[in-house]
């Protein structure tokens, strides 16, 4: 064996010294001699955003263990899917995104949503103004409706009459300051309150009572979430006035008796309270509760905007002011944020694996469905989601891409038109219609649609054409019309 040349030996020693020095420096910088694995007791926990004065999305999340799937894994849900659902939709909390998920569920599974006969766009909020009135509704095709998805003041008795006794009740809450930021932008409150200057939200929070004299509700800033969930307006006003008299950081060391009673009652009536700041985690909880498949909860965000108030810096003193002005909503949010994480803790270690898997597949779907630079030959290909312990195998098709991107008014109109066609018994078709044989001048004619002008107003042609194929009203073999790439994969329609 030849002796090692001195220069090579020197290089080897230098390399080994560099590696050892790097390891030692890493240990010194981290203060640890080994990789840390968080236990259940000491893993990072959620800190409310108003305490840290930073967006809730930026707060620390629990650690997410990586779960590798065996090659022969099988999906065994162990329960029957449930479709009776009451969503108590609160304002500016991300509820439109969840409403769109429920729209799609109703559309693809042919369910009945509680819906007004009126085709005006304002009908989406009509229940909030005057409640659910039987005479204004499209009747259910069975004994009861399946889903409540629109804004309304929560009333258990009325909702139960509409859905029957076995419905699941859920709602969605948001960190109160984040909710105010969204509300302030969406309803143009700076203009309504005649506030000018570079920081209108901060100016408002210096003296909110000076600007907002409205009763609690979606267009007012005092306790809108509690109001949506049925808390009396007079009591909310009185509680806010009492809190505003005190300059302490937290007026109530614990909720007043009326607030405690309200929280106790609403907790007993809701099966799940979702948290907007953890929307994906909330959807996985909903999926498990309802025994749905992964495909049922895929989504695109709806009504998500970038706006100045979202980034406007709010001082700690103004945050304290908002706690008093919005006092009941803070108690409500803190209670359900705590119970949310208690529920997550009981899900087992595979919960975070499922959340990670869901996020990955939702991103795959979004990337596939908005793919613009695609070859024509690839336009009709499907995206495969393989079976795992959390989902059955399924395909994401161009048709699904079209449906998942329907605007909210298009969804409402196509569902409404489907219900109207059901009750026009003479217009029922047992097989697809041949537009050429029937000498139809347009696809926007009866019996293909009942409210054809409204369909034309609210849906693109590709969306409508996909609907006609999906409901088997026309056959692909009987028409020269076919959905284009923009009807399936492609940009999201610019209407909502």
Automatic annotation (TrEMBL):
InterPro entries: Gal-3-0_sulfotransfrase, P-loop_NTPase. Keywords: Glycoprotein, Golgi apparatus, Membrane, Signal-anchor, Transferase, Transmembrane, Transmembrane helix. One of its GO terms (molecular function) is galactosylceramide sulfotransferase activity. Pfam families: Gal-3-0_sulfotr (PF06990). Gene3D superfamilies: P-loop containing nucleotide triphosphate hydrolases. Coiled coil: none annotated. It comes from the Eukaryota. It is a single-pass type II membrane protein. One of its GO terms (biological process) is glycolipid biosynthetic process. It is found in: Golgi apparatus membrane. SUPFAM superfamilies: P-loop containing nucleoside triphosphate hydrolases. Its main location: Golgi. One of its GO terms (cellular component) is Golgi membrane. The keyword Transmembrane applies. Belongs to the galactose-3-O-sulfotransferase family. This is Galactosylceramide sulfotransferase-like. It comes from Branchiostoma belcheri (Amphioxus). The gene is LOC109461735.
């Amino acid at each position: 064996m030849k002796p090692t040349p001195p220069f090579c030996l020197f290089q080897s020693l230098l390399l080994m010294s560099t590696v050892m020095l790097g390891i030692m420096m890493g240990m010194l910088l981290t203060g640890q001699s080994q990789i840390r694995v968080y236990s259940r007791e000491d893993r990072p926990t959620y800190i409310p955003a108003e305490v840290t004065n930073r967006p809730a999305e930026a707060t620390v999340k629990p650690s997410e263990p990586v779960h590798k799937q065996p090659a022969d894994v099988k999906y065994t849900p162990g329960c029957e899917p449930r479709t009776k659902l009451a969503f108590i939709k609160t304002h500016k909390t991300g509820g439109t995104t969840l409403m769109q998920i429920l729209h799609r569920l109703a559309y693809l599974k042919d369910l009945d949503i509680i819906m007004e006969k009126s085709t005006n766009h304002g009908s989406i909020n009509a229940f909030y103004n005057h409640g659910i009135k039987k005479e204004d509704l499209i009747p259910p095709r069975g004994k009861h409706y399946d889903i409540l998805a629109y804004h309304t003041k929560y009333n258990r008795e009325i909702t139960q009459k509409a859905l029957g006794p076995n419905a699941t009740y859920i709602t969605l809450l948001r960190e109160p300051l984040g909710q105010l930021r969204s509300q302030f932008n969406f309803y143009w409150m700076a203009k309504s309150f005649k506030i000018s200057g570079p920081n209108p939200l901060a100016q408002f929070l210096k003296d909110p009572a000076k600007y907002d004299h409205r009763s609690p509700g979606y267009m007012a800033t005092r306790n809108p979430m509690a109001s949506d969930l049925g808390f009396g307006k007079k009591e909310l006003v009185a509680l806010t006035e009492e809190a505003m008299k005190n300059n302490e950081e937290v007026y109530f060391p614990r909720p007043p008796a009326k607030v405690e009673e309200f929280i106790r009652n609403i907790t007993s009536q809701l099966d799940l309270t979702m948290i907007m700041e953890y929307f994906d985690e909330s959807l996985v909880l909903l999926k498990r509760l309802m025994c749905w498949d992964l495909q049922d909860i895929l989504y695109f965000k709806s009504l998500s905007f970038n706006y100045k108030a979202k980034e406007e810096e709010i001082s700690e003193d103004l945050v304290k002011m908002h706690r008093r002005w919005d006092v009941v909503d803070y108690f409500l949010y803190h209670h359900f944020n705590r119970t949310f994480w208690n529920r997550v803790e009981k899900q087992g270690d595979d919960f975070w694996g499922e959340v990670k898997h869901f996020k990955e597949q939702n991103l795959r779907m979004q990337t596939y469905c908005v793919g613009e630079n695609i070859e024509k030959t690839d336009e009709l290909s499907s995206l495969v989601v393989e079976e795992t312990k959390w989902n059955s195998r399924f395909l994401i098709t161009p048709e699904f891409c079209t449906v998942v991107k329907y605007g909210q008014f298009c969804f409402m109109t196509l569902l409404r038109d489907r219900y109207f066609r059901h009750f026009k018994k003479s217009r029922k078709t047992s097989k697809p219609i041949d537009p050429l044989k029937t000498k139809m001048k347009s696809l926007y004619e009866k019996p293909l649609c009942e409210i054809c002008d409204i369909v034309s107003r609210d849906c693109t042609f590709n969306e409508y054409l996909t609907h006609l194929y999906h409901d088997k009203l026309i056959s692909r073999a009987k028409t020269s019309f076919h959905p284009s790439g923009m009807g399936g994969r492609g940009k999201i329609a610019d209407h909502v």
